[in-house]
Structures are given as structure tokens and as C-alpha cells.
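A.,

Following up on our hallway conversation. C-alpha cells first:
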């Protein structure tokens, strides 16, 4: 049997308006984009690892990311480590095994953090370092609030209100230059003898109960003669104020804070907490997701600054914080829509 071949036949021909040499030059990039698009046929999936979901700060970060991701039709898979390093390792490894396109992580431990970045990269997953710089690592981008500026706002406020007296200094662990920024203003007055640091403690894991114990012990040791407390965030500030209340000193000692938690804002209205630092998590969440999308699309990140983490200059986006005290609660927090007036002033 023989196959009959027609004398003529038609084949569709398509012309591409691109020079063949240009196509060859860009073939590597085209191949990368092709496989990247294949991996994203089901939509972009971002894995996120946050410290916990017990503190208002991290709850707000999650809510802000979820809201913005929904606008962008992006799927987010969240994990909360409860400030447990081993738990974070297990959770992130699970996110990697699920094949997320990009990982956003606040690393709880510098050693395991580097290992997780390496594991993600081996799986072809880009990593956005969130809010806490992971040193000596190959992170692809760093998105954070300006931690040094947060500390500067706290320290400057304290010395303006209490230029002389006994200070309790508390710093969170891990710290993000908060203490360094605060001490720029406090240390000069220590040198000249106007300020005496009667306690300098690290609050492991930012646990409020540890802050409570530190302040309670400092009060006992100094016969209640404490004039100012550098509390690293609103949760530790609340614990410090609890210790002060037990001695009838709430409202008589200047106490800093950070995060603009609603309970902290209510304490500022009451006069027991002096100030907080507002860090708009909505802006940070948007920045992190926007960066993640660019990384997933293999776009070059163009940022205003870079941060040297000991291994490389990392493209960096820093969101600026704002000081909040009794004088500007409405303007900064309520008018911006961050907090609702009825929630803040309920009962007043």
C-alpha cells in the first residue's frame, strides 16, 4: 500500500516582528519567563511567616496583607510561629514544600533564618525579609519600618519629658536598632550625670511577663524611684504600667511604646502611657506584596536605598514611623482610618 501525496498543500505561516538575533540574545530570559508563567498558571501564591498572632501588631500585619492580596487576586498562605524558632523552621519548610512562588518571612533566629533562605532558593523561591534584617544572608529584598528612627522617636521623647532621673531601659530580642536609636538621645545625658540607668534588660521574645518582672524588680531595688521607662513596644509598655499601678505610680512615670495598639492608645488617653510610635502596617504590607510580585515576575527591583547585611547590598524599602501622643491621636490614627473613633474612645 502506498500513501498518496498531494501535488500541493497549505501550511499556515505566522510572521514575528522580531530580529532572529534579538530572539537568540533574549532566549534565556524568555525561557525563564515561560517556566515562571507555567508555575503561576494557578495564580501567584505567597507564603508568609510572622512571629505570632497574639499581639495586635502582627494581627494587623496579617489583615493588611490579606486585604491587599485580595485586591490583587493573590493567594497568601500564612503561618504564625508563636516566637518559637523550631516551629518557624517547620512551618517555612512546609511552605517551601507546597511550592509557594515567593516567601515573606520575619526571621526569629539568625542562624536558622539563613538556612531557610538557602532552602527556599534551592527550591527556586525568592525571599522577602520582612521587618527584621537577616544578616549575612542572600535575601532578595528587605522591607521594613525604619527601626533606627523608631528608637530615635522614643529616646528623644523621653529626654524631652524627663531630662533628669532614673531610667529603666528595656530592649526587645530580636531588636531592630530600636535601642540604638533611643540611646542616641539618652546616652549623652547619662555621660553628664543627668540620667542614671538603674536597669538595662533584654526582653527575650518580647514577652510582656518578662517586662513586668523587670520593672517590678527595678522598683523594689530602687525604692520606687523610677522616672522613665524605655519600653520597646506597646505590649511590654502595658506590662510595665501594670507593675507601676501596683505601686500607685501609673501616670507618674514616663513610658514609651511602639505599634499604636488600641489598648496603648487608650492608656495614652488615660495618661498612664506617654507615647507610642505609629507604624502603618497597611503600607508595609502593600510594599512587601508589591516586592514579592516583582520578584515572582523576575523583574529588577528599583529601590531608593540598599542595606548591607554583611553579605550583600540588599534592595530595601523603609517605611517611616510617626510619634503619637495625646495631642495627635485623632489626626494620625483616626483620620487616617487606621483606628475607629468609637473603638478608641469607648467608655470615655
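Then the amino acids I'd put at each of the 348 positions:
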Amino acid at each position: 500500500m502506498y500513501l498518496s501525496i498531494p501535488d500541493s498543500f497549505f501550511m499556515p505561516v505566522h510572521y514575528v516582528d522580531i530580529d532572529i538575533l534579538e530572539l537568540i540574545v533574549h532566549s534565556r530570559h524568555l525561557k525563564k519567563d515561560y517556566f515562571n508563567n507555567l508555575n503561576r498558571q494557578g495564580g501567584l501564591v505567597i507564603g508568609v511567616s510572622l512571629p505570632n498572632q497574639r499581639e495586635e501588631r502582627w494581627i494587623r500585619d496579617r489583615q493588611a496583607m490579606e486585604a491587599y492580596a485580595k485586591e490583587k487576586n493573590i493567594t497568601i498562605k500564612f503561618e504564625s510561629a508563636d516566637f518559637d524558632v523550631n516551629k518557624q523552621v517547620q512551618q517555612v519548610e512546609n511552605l517551601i514544600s507546597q511550592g509557594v512562588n515567593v516567601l515573606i518571612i520575619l526571621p526569629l533566629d539568625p542562624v536558622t533564618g539563613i538556612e531557610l533562605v538557602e532552602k527556599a532558593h534551592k527550591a527556586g523561591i525568592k525571599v522577602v525579609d520582612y521587618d527584621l534584617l537577616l544578616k549575612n544572608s542572600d535575601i532578595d529584598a528587605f522591607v521594613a519600618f525604619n527601626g533606627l528612627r523608631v528608637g530615635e522617636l522614643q529616646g528623644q521623647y523621653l529626654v524631652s519629658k524627663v531630662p533628669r532621673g532614673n531610667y529603666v531601659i528595656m530592649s526587645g530580642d530580636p531588636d531592630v536598632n530600636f535601642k540604638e536609636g533611643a540611646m542616641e538621645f539618652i546616652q549623652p545625658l547619662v555621660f553628664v550625670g543627668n540620667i542614671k540607668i538603674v536597669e538595662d534588660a533584654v526582653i527575650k521574645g518580647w514577652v510582656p511577663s518578662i517586662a513586668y518582672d523587670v520593672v517590678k524588680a527595678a522598683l523594689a531595688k530602687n525604692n520606687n524611684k523610677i522616672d522613665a521607662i524605655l519600653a520597646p513596644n506597646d505590649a511590654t509598655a502595658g506590662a510595665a504600667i501594670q507593675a507601676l499601678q501596683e505601686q500607685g505610680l501609673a501616670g507618674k512615670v514616663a513610658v514609651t511604646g511602639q505599634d499604636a495598639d488600641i489598648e496603648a492608645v487608650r492608656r495614652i488617653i488615660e495618661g498612664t502611657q506617654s507615647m507610642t510610635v505609629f507604624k502603618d502596617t497597611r503600607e508595609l504590607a502593600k510594599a512587601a506584596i508589591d516586592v514579592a510580585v516583582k520578584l515572582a515576575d523576575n523583574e529588577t527591583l528599583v529601590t531608593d536605598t540598599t542595606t548591607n547585611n554583611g553579605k550583600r547590598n540588599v534592595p530595601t524599602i523603609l517605611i517611616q514611623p510617626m510619634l503619637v501622643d495625646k495631642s495627635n491621636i485623632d489626626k494620625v490614627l483616626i483620620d487616617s482610618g487606621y483606628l475607629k473613633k468609637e473603638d478608641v474612645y469607648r467608655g470615655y
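The longest strand covers residues 195-204. Curious whether your intuition agrees with the design.

B.
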